[in-house]
Design goal:
Shape: elongated
Number of helices: 2
CATH topology of the domain at 114-177: Nucleotide Exchange Factor Grpe, Chain A, domain 2
Strand content: 15-25%
CATH superfamily of the domain at 114-177: Head domain of nucleotide exchange factor GrpE
Number of strands: 6
Order of helices and strands: HHEEEEEE
Distance between the termini: 152 Å
Largest sheet: 3 strands, antiparallel
Length: 177
């Protein structure tokens, strides 16, 4: 057998052109710029994700606080009714004792949730804490002093849960003769 002649190499595929140092430096700089841009986008995405997480946590905390406040406020009319029931003459001592025990239980439950009554009698009227439902003539105390409490107000921590409904003093104008 005769050896098969190898075809002569053709210049069909040109040898890869060699890049100059300057071209390599330019390509490296472009690649670093793209890497820096991608890194900045990555940092921005991480920061945005962190902001979304914090915003969601705050919204959840706000909703929980609002729901808690709403639930606790629903107990206040029950306490008002127990106070009214204890204010009237009750012939049965056991009924009075039961009402007092129930009231103490509700008050203890609310106190454990940082709900406390607002003390108003004899205090100057404060529209942030009080709702004036009437006035009573009086020269015995300073003008706009709380004389009576129609409905007890409550605080939830440092927030107003329900304003106190109060009667405030109003000076009597002296008639000149």
């Amino acid at each position: 057998m005769e050896p098969v002649a190898q075809p002569a190499a053709t210049n069909a595929a040109a040898p890869p052109s060699e890049l100059t140092v300057e071209e390599l430096v330019n390509e490296l700089a472009a690649a670093q710029a793209r890497a820096n841009e991608n890194h900045q986008k990555h940092l921005y995405a991480i920061a945005e994700l962190d902001n979304v997480r914090k915003r969601m946590e705050k919204q959840l905390a706000d909703r929980l606080t609002a729901g808690r406040k709403e639930l606790l406020a629903k107990f206040l009319p029950v306490i008002d009714n127990l106070h009214r029931a204890l204010a009237i003459e009750i012939a049965s001592d056991s009924l009075r004792d039961g009402l007092q025990a129930t009231l103490r239980g509700f008050e203890a439950a609310l106190a454990s949730e940082q709900v406390r009554p607002i003390l108003v009698l004899g205090m100057p009227f404060d529209p942030r804490l009080h709702e004036a439902i009437g006035t009573r003539p009086s020269n015995e105390v300073a003008d706009n002093t709380v004389l009576d409490e129609a409905q007890r107000g409550y605080m939830l921590g440092e927030e107003l849960l329900r304003p106190a409904q109060v009667i405030v003093s109003q000076h009597i104008a002296e008639e000149s003769a």
